[in-house]
Write a structure and sequence with these properties.
By secondary structure, the protein is mainly alpha-helical. It contains 5 helices and 2 strands. Strands 1-2 form a two-stranded antiparallel ribbon. The radius of gyration is 15 Å and the shape is globular.
Length: about 110
Amino acid sequence: MARTTAELVEGIIDVESAISLTPFISAANSLVTQCCTGLDAEHTDAQHVDTETWLSDHFYTVRDMRAESEKAGSVSEKFQSKVDLGLATSHYGQMAMVLDYQGGLAALNERIK
């Protein structure tokens, strides 16, 4: 069962109302459950909620990339993420790894690379 909610995810990132957050929350829940639980009794439920929320935001950016810069004359747009694998491709994935101070997500990120 997911630890985070759509409201928590929306509190960090602007979301398009037509896009359901369910698949992003579900994916984040799976990774947090697999990589961040059972490692240390000091990792609290609240910390898991925070990690899962930021990780949900990361997965959302795969669907709806964040603009790094925009330009009106001669229309231009540059996105924050890069084409790559792993959690470091967005600021949200980077933050999720920071919040998982035990390193489960960082270890997964290294294995993906």
